[in-house]
Design a protein that fits this description.
- Helix content is 33%, strand content 21%.
- By secondary structure, the chain is of the alpha+beta class.
- It has one domain.
- Strands 2-1-3 form a three-stranded antiparallel sheet.
- Strand 1 and strand 2 form a beta hairpin.
- The mean pLDDT is 83.
- Bound molecules: zinc ion.
- Zinc ion (ZN) binds next to loops.
- Zinc ion binds next to loops.
Amino acid sequence: MRFVIIVLFERMGANSSRYEFACSHCSERVVVDALVQKQLLGTGCVFCGRNVSERDFVRER
Ligand SMILES: [Zn+2]
């Protein structure tokens, strides 16, 4: 799990959009980019493993 989170952060810093993910199941939060958002939608929360929806993401300004 920790490895996955590190990968998420290393991908940031590019010019892609960022989203704040707040899990509706475990309330954990992490900022991700658009690519990682897609991964999370496909694989579930990195913290608790449950399904996530697009409503769990808020685009950062
Ligand atoms: Zn979760």
